[in-house]
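Need a sequence for this fold. Nothing fancy.
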């Protein structure tokens, strides 16, 4: 198995800060997940999830990071690398933002910072999976140079698998 550098866990862009999770993120994380329309998890459940994310980060060297806007200081979503449907050698980039901030380029900006962080780890390829109906998310990935690899059918519907080679 190849050894990779640890991903930087604090990333900054012109408008955003991506940083490690804090217990204080739990309420906002609950609100974000409730926008999926499948109910609202409890804050206690999310605190447990945050602890699990921090443990996974410590063991894998990759992270899913909260996004906050630099000027406003508010939590607007998350972006990072996960094993998800992929592997530690070729992780998956993942992001989700509050609907109120969609269409402002934040997902692209955060994902570009995570892409650069992935390059710094020495990885050669990333994956992304997204529902085929999610055109805005597919556009973000296209802007970042991801290309469609295949489509699969899952319980939640049709999923596009995209990949991007890293320099």
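Here you go.
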């Amino acid at each position: 198995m190849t050894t990779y550098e640890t991903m930087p866990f604090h990333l900054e862009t012109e408008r955003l800060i991506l940083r490690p999770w804090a217990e204080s993120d739990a309420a906002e994380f609950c609100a974000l997940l409730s926008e999926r329309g499948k109910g609202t998890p409890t804050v206690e459940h999310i605190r447990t999830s945050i602890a699990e994310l921090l443990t996974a980060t410590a063991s894998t060297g990759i992270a899913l990071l909260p996004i906050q806007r630099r000027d406003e200081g508010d939590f607007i979503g998350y972006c990072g690398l996960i094993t998800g449907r992929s592997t530690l050698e070729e992780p998956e980039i993942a992001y989700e933002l509050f609907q109120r901030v969609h269409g402002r380029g934040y997902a692209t900006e955060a994902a570009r910072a995570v892409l650069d962080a992935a390059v710094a780890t020495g990885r050669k390829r990333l994956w992304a999976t997204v529902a085929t109906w999610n055109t805005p998310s597919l556009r973000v990935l296209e802007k970042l140079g991801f290309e469609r690899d295949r489509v699969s059918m899952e319980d939640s519907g049709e999923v596009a698998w995209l990949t991007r080679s890293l320099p």
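For context: DSSP finds four helices and eight strands in the chain.
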